[in-house]
Amino acid sequence: MGIVEEAYNVGVVGSGQQVLVLAHGIGTDQSIWKYLVPHLVDDNRVIMYDNMGAGTTNPEYFDFERYSTLEGYTYDLLAILEELHVKSCIFVGHSSSAMVGAIAAVTRPDLFTKLIMIAASPR
Length: 123
Known about the structure:
Elements: H1 3-7, E1 11-13, E2 18-23, E3 44-49, H2 70-83, E4 89-94, H3 96-107, E5 112-118
Parallel strand pairs: 2-3, 2-4, 4-5
Antiparallel strand pairs: 1-3
Protein name: AB hydrolase-1 domain-containing protein
Domain AB hydrolase-1: 19-120
Pfam families: Abhydrolase_1 (PF00561)
């Protein structure tokens, strides 16, 4: 496990060719996906992570300036994808993470084939 995977409590399940990335919104953690994931793992490789400050992330990594905008969370997402050697994915984002996915897709369109936005927060 790499430093990024550890910092964001990254979980990877399934072994399919298609990569799905599930990102939770503010006030929750990756456990919101626990009922959905079993239906996805047969055909997909599913990546889940906790946004910094949520779940079991280490509070020592939290930087108020970095996370004062969605770009800080976007850099985290891109670092996770890089560490896991993801070449292409379908991104599913809830609330603020939907907007993080949109920013990431504009920044690195080569990494995203689809964005699924659930109750996306306005930016």
